[in-house]
Amino acid sequence: xxxxxxxxxxxxxxxxxxxxxxxxxxxxxxxxxxxxxxxxxxxxxxxxxxxxxxxxxxxxxxxxxxxxxxxxxxxxxxxxxxxxxxxxxxxxxxxxxxxxxxxxxxxxxxxxxxxxxxxxxxxxxxxxxxxxxxxxxxxxxxxxxxxxxxxxxxxxxxxxxxxxxxxxxxxxxxxxxxxxxxxxxxxxxxxxxxxxxxxxxxxxxxxxxxxxxxxxxxxxxxxxxxxxxxxxxxxxxxxxxxxxxxxxxxxxxxxxxxxxxxxxxxxxxxxxxxxxxxxxxxxxxxxxxxxxxxxxxxxxxxxxxxxxxxxxxxxxxxxxxxxxxxxxxxxxxxxxxxxxxxxxxxxxxxxxxxxxxxxxxxxxxxxxxxxxxxxxxxxxxxxxxxxxxxxxxxxxxxxxxxxxxxxxxxxxxxxxxxxxxxxxxxxxxxxxxxxxxxxxxxxxxxxxxxxxxxxxxxxxxxxxxxxxxxxxxxxxxxxxxxxxxxxxxxxxxxxxxxxxxxxxxxxxxxxxxxxxxxxxxxxxxxxxxxxxxxxxxxxxxxxxxxxxxxxxxxxxxxxxxxxxxxxxxxxxxxxxxxxxxxxxxxxxxxxxxxxxxxxxxxxxxxxxxxxxxxxxxxxxxxxxxxxxxxxxxxxxxxxxxxxxxxxxxxxxxxxxxxxxxxxxxxxxxxxxxxxxxxxxxxxxxxx
Amino acid sequence: xxxxxxxxxxxxxxxxxxxxxxxxxxxxxxxxxxxxxxxxxxxxxxxxxxxxxxxxxxxxxxxxxxxxxxxxxxxxxxxxxxxxxxxxxxxxxxxxxxxxxxxxxxxxxxxxxxxxxxxxxxxxxxxxxxxxxxxxxxxxxxxxxxxxxxxxxxxxxxxxxxxxxxxxxxxxxxxxxxxxxxxxxxxxxxxxxxxxxxxxxxxxxxxxxxxxxxxxxxxxxxxxxxxxxxxxxxxxxxxxxxxxxxxxxxxxxxxxxxxxxxxxxxxxxxxxxxxxxxxxxxxxxxxxxxxxxxxxxxxxxxxxxxxxxxxxxxxxxxxxxxxxxxxxxxxxxxxxxxxxxxxxxxxxxxxxxxxxxxxxxxxxxxxxxxxxxxxxxxxxx
Lengths: 687, 381
Hints:
The structure holds two protein chains of two kinds. By secondary structure, chain A is mainly beta. Chain A is built from four helices and 39 strands. Chain B has two helices and 29 strands. Chain B has a five-stranded antiparallel sheet with strand order 1-4-3-2-29, with no helix packed on it. Chains A and B meet through helix 1, strand 11, strand 12, strand 17 and strand 18 of A and helix 1, strand 12, strand 22 and strand 27 of B.
């Protein structure tokens, strides 16, 4: 049966491009008709980008059967999402296997931070109000940006929608309702209001409620092929209730613009645990409250001088509760370790950016950022002193870009100064770091859209508050973790003026990464006690490729986006000079092969989307590349169909989605089962 | 150009399709390696080794060593018990043999797994939440557990010891002891339980509970020292209790309790983490984290229990100790006095088991499972 599946898969995968190819030869006539590339899926940008970039935006995002940022990022080459399954489960992103901490995630231009543990749960961010998702390896390909934009090994930008008013409309209202086969209800609205010629307002909100119960299955065979066990159970404690409210003000000024936002998120959810023998449910709970407000201002004061300013205040309150109980001899007793801990984080951030054009081909920029972070906690029953750390970070960047004929060169130096204070326990020493980056782009031919590029970047990540101060584990003497990244690649938009295709572009990059002083937990005599140290050492290399094509056959628009990634990331950590039994093995959850495909067909008011994700064999958290630690490949097929209609001037849109169409029972993280086949129905109405 | 690009695309897709095969999962298979010469003498046929497996990984596993063949076999449970869903479980904490049954205490699977001594096939599964160690006395098994009554304070639960009838494998009684009880010993109808209070940092428990086994009540709490963990009893009724210390000001230590008076009688001022008592000799090791070097200080030694004096500050004499990252399990063969030490590495990766001659020279070494830790010798009937 699996062989059949495999054959079918091969057929399918090979036929799609073949069909496109065959049609390309047959049908070359209609190519010069109007090229409406509405459905081009992942944009490979033209020359001004000297940095590998992938982006999903507008309609493409809407058509994808994904509803949170984490799910959409899976389609980018080089990304891996760590997904603990379910609706309440944590979803984090890793780029080029460098680790979650080396990815900077920006929301409307300002970084989302978590000084406590460095983890941004991307499952929390909805795609409903998203205009574009963009990922850069290295950093964004411009110098007119804040110092923080220079401060990560990879950056992801979430850009929310800005109000757009057709004709003389003053108000846009969108109502939407989603439901899913796992008892999921998700009503949302978005209101856009014109407040004058130059100012507009948006207000949106979404409420999600689900019991999160889905079926999962564990099956193993005996060596002779007979079934050893085959169990299907229901995922428990994966429920969620979440409310998001977001509002923005957008203004235009002479040669500039400004915006201001408020964001509030409140959720109560189960944090589903590992499925292990004799324990198929647990009751670890998580309550979150996040609030932030931010503002952005940009203006070209003269032809040569441009200015940006931004500011943010964020407050996060997270409560973790572990209160599992069971009974023995008729008495109720605790099951695992109990806890009830609340953490409160404050963040303040201001930034100014100045850019000056010395010559039309030569720009320089100077940015200065200042950030304050503070972590407070109440931990019931824990009698050690919490450190109550505060961190002051100052970042300065000096960057320059130069265009010399066929070359574009971009260089930057980032200076970081960190000072901390604690109320109790030892504080971490002050740190000063300087890290450079150099990017080069080269367009060899005038008549041809080929760009060659290369970059080298050194960056670091600060130890988190948990790394430094977590009771019994944290070590305040930790140094930053350094990441050196090198990349060469190209981007080629194949000329297709006379072909069947409207667009065909390919980009590929090869990279090498070296993590030095990686922050890892070192063992002590007690299994329950670890010490954070800088002893980790990882070397990675890989190739990422993206092929993007689009065509149309009369009114039928077709688009395809294919990615393939090969990655190797090997752990060369030594402990007291000794090589671990896993020395030189691929790090956990890093697949050698991964890829994705998005195929889209649009015909009038109809839209069909097929998406496929493949993550190859990898090894689980036990590290050693041996059979028992192997995690099976997984691949999911998602389908969605959309139809728009107009009833009494109201624009309606209905969507049916089918996720994991083949009902594959897979795991991204070992012992955390993912949902099988799910149906989703969405109806939205624009007033 | 365009054609070749398409071909590259197709090539990539074929490649993807070929490598994408997802196979049916097969049960975890054992693997056998001959590591020693076959030995025919003695009453011990071999031993079981319990690998703890990292929390959440569900990778507790049992290895077996056969003296008669010299073969070391890893991970036998799944093969012998293919129908047990999700195999042995999460975090093995103790293994002991009593009669013809092997009792494996699986901490995070909240159960004691009872398997047959010779076939390793499941006989029963006894549900005990957060169970830690097991010991036996007159047809009863005693299992310590961190679980306790639910309190407002998350770290106030007082642990218990459950009594299991080894004939029916049912829990009969339970008795409340101290905070987070660990190892136990029995003598003269009394059960001694080392209470760690490990959840209550820095206010550790510091007592040993004395349980009268007839009434199954706690008759005394002996004040010994903080964070108690290991327990051994010698032929004269002296009980050795190890303390893990607080990792800061109070170092690891070894105390002696006189079971005749139920009083603490000595503090040996000796760092001890793991220990094994054979005849009159107590073999021990300690691992202490040093903040200065960011590494562990590891020490080994042998204590004469008659004189309470250290007779050797070495167990390994040929320099192999330099290769052991974290000594974790320690066992001495009661007859041949061969020494077994496991290396847990960083607790995440696959560990090793080392066998040394009685005078501390390496005899063999092989790969075990994840966190190899606890031994149970298999005696001839």
